Amino acid sequence: MGTKENIKRWLESPLVDDKTKEEIKNLNQEALDDAFFKDVEFGTAGMRGVLGPGTNRLNYFTVRKATVGFAQYLLEKYENAKEMGVVISHDNRHFSREFTLLSSKILNDFGIKTYIFDSLRPTPELSFAVRYCKACGGIMITASHNPKEYNGYKVYDETGCQLVPDKIARLVELIGLLPDELHVEYQEAPIKGKEILLGKEIDEQYIKEVEAIAINRDLDKSNYKIVFTPNHGTSLMPARQVFKDLGYDVYYVESQCTPDPDFSGTLSPNPEDQRSYIEPIKLAEKIGAQLVVMTDPDGDRVGLAYLHSDGTYHTFTGNQAAAVLMNYIFSQKKLKGTLSDNGVMYNTIVTSPLGKKIAESYGVKCEQFLTGFKFIGNRIDYYDKHGGPKFEFGYEESYGCLVAPFARDKDGTQAILMYCEMALFYHLLGKSLDMVWEEIGQKFGYHEDVAYSMEFKGSSGQAQMDAIMDELHANPLQEVGNMKVVQVDDVLKGTTTINDKITKLDLPKSNVVKLFFKDGGFIAVRPSGTEPKVKFYISVIGNSQKDAAEKPAKLYQALKKALKI
To answer: Residues 392, 346: contact at Cβ < 8 Å?
Structure first.
């Protein structure tokens, strides 16, 4: 069904209230096109979209349809789904609580028991709760780090992991078999499922597991100040408790501690955006803090800023922070004899090659997956059931990592604890984190990894994105900015090409093209799974930190010129 037909259907439906119809009538043509040109889709992190009326929006009707499909999926897949139940949590965004209660009611109508929290909780705690309650699934209502206009809907399996493609395919199929979002109907079960309110026990058990990952718990924390912000989101409660229990001296950005859906105290809730550090660094400067840590709204990603040896505050990218943390964890575990002889570290195909170098230097294997932490969570479960190797660390370039697998998603609470311990450890040795980063560069090479993105809205934007990717698949670049491409991985085709020799690529098919250079750097291009953007990941290796830092921007300009965009 096309844009015009979808708009007509909504405006003429008695199921759509007059206020919503008036809102549709007041949209300009570009906004109408973006809201109605397609159905909102499940991407790398579930279903995510702008809030508002339309088939390509998050609203009562699209969330209702997704939940009906999920209920059918669970009843088909699990013989005792009704008794196992589903855990549902949410972040601070507009309609998050309403979507939570709507989802719970629909699942109850199907006879499925639900567990809900009394208020917002972070995504990793939802993952933990699914496992703790031995539920058959989970739903997290969140748009993660997206702007305030967004919300989203993530679905989890019984292991606390987001559904991977071979699982979600059946869910998408079932949703596709349903009528359009305005006319979804279902037969209520004779006995409705119960809605159970989760108590403090889940919070306490989750926090207990987080605190257990500390390696050097008793470091001297006097004269070491930390600034923390949850960016108006879900992490305040668990983070505050962890900081208190472990004795850290933490100062909170109070203007960002309320669960505000409009994010009024920050210019951005996204740790990848430098604007999110403005207020925390102001506070750090005022009190003389050594470290700034933050989580995104749903508490799975962490941003890090530190007091540089030059006396100013610098930020780390997700790749840099995870590399420094991994090196600390592995070095300390090896020293204490707790690093497995059969360990594995997981990251993704768009993550810096530095992580693999660090892991292998400690005898830890590295496996890479497509973007999306669900692939990491799924492999953890697989190896748990097949005798190893043992999980030691997992991370993505997008500011998310997992230290211990009692949760099966990125865990910001685990991350902030270990970043604080790591930074304090080096501080007590007289080292600022830039000194540690320089040592890593000297040992493993000076890596710089930057993710750029270009936005393409509406049906015309979708056509532009498709054209860019189609051209790359058909005619992959042989050279970018005077750097020769020595290998092409086409994940959609499932092929690796080196010197015209084509071999099979052992990854699920996905719309990604990755170009490798001789020195080990790369460019990867893929459409975002959660926003109307094309993402460009550029990884370079330089002769020094300064040399490496100057390369990505130049290479990106050369890439855009080569792609004629």
So the answer is: no
How high is the pLDDT of residue 218? 96
Known catalytic membership, residue 127: no
Considering the candidates 144, 235, 398, 432, report the single residue annotated as catalytic: 144
Shortest CA distance to 442 belongs to which of 545, 321, 308?
545
pLDDT tens by residue, 137-152: 999 999 998 999 999 9
Rounded distance between C-alpha atoms, residue 144 and residue 302, angstroms: 12
Angle CA 308–310–311, to nearest 5: 70
Distance CA 251, CA 371 (A): 34
C-alpha 447/C-alpha 468 separation (Å) is 27
Residue 145 contacts residue 528 (beta carbons within 8 Å) = no
* CA separation for the pair 409, 373 (Å, rounded): 6
pLDDT tier for residue 337 given thresholds of 50, 70 and 90: very high
d(CA 35, CA 464): 18
pTM value is 0.94
Instruction: Please give the single-letter amino acid code of residue 429.
Output: L
In degrees and rounded to multiples of 5, residue 349 shows phi and psi of: -70, -10
Kindly give, in sequence order, each residue whose CB lies less than 8 Å from that of residue 101, ignoring residues fewer than 6 positions away.
Answer: 116
pLDDT digits (tens, 9 = 90+) for 83-139: 999 999 999 999 999 999 999 999 999 999 999 999 999 999 999 999 999 999 999
Residue 322 CB partners (closer than 8 Å, separation 6+):
347, 355, 395, 397, 401
